[in-house]
Amino acid sequence: MTQPAVATGVANPEQAVPLVGGVQGIVADWSSDQRAFKNVPWGKAMMWIFLLSDTFIFSSFLISYMTVRISTTVPWPNPSEVFSLRIGGTEVPLLLIAIMTFVLISSSGTMALAVNYGYRKNKVTTFWLLLATAALGATFVGMQAFEWTKLIVDEGVRPWGNPMGAAQFGSSFFMITGFHGTHVSIGVIFLIIVAIKVLRGDLDKQRPGFLTGRRGNYEIVETMGLYWHFVDLVWVFIFAVFYLW
Amino acid sequence: MTQAEAHSAGAAHGTEGAVHQEVGQHHPLGIYFKIWGLLFVLSTASYLVDYFHFQGYLRWFLILTFMLLKAGLIVAVFMHMVWERLALMYAILVPPLLLLVLVWIGAVEGDHTFLTRGTFFGAPPAIEAPAKHQK
Fold this sequence. Notes:
The complex is a heterodimer of chains A (245) and B (135). Chain A has 245 residues and is mainly α.
């Protein structure tokens, strides 16, 4: 079947008119018909929009934390000591947090590889890389659960106060890390779902998804990847402003 | 007219697979391993800032530099932003800059609250409580 030029235009509007770069490209993209975001699948553009809104939510938490920490007259508990681990009789500062950081970065690495192997249509490798990402994410959540238990049971930290200093420490900590941990947990669940879809061949066969009904495609691996890298990105900011301040 | 539309719709579905292949991001694996390694190095560096007890402006400078470098690498390479068109880049990256205003307002307000608390809670009471309220 020969494809008329009109049909090609409908299927891929980007190809109908040659794309220009630079500032002219921005104007052309935004003033063009139907789609402002060229060269990206719709789902990916929408994931970016969602992540932008999530950026504002996490920023609100972090800026509130900054405000209460600046305004308190009671000394803030030293995170370096609060989050230290005792290894062989010596206190190593922030050790658990450092390990959590490396675990999350590694999960981002395996996720990036999974996206790459997904576009190569390598089902088995993509599946195992996604599963590795989920396992590292679950490890992170497990370590966070350990950290919370240590703080609540051993150190007596509560959202309304703690024996080490400023009362706002507890509420900021539980709110920020709790919200981040929830994001990681949701990510792990969806990673497992996407991994199963990959292995089952849903994406090759373009089987409709259970939630959206849209046909399966390896782009969903990249969209999933965007979410997962964002979780890693938020941790970068939490690590810097909460644990290192 | 309707026939032509139906035809073009059919052709659209037929070419979908090919179109998506053009849309997807293809890059050599090496770059991901390089960024992975760089992120490890930068994380270790920011951990060492705490380990060696750097204080003051040096601490802040190092922490924020490593934070922004890590964030930049993740967004640019892992999230493929560097390969996207400017329209998407600016749509996603410019709005968060507004948050800097909120950071500024928060810092000003925090300082004000701190000073107010110092004035009202830190200083000795200026007026004695009236005797008639005491039991």
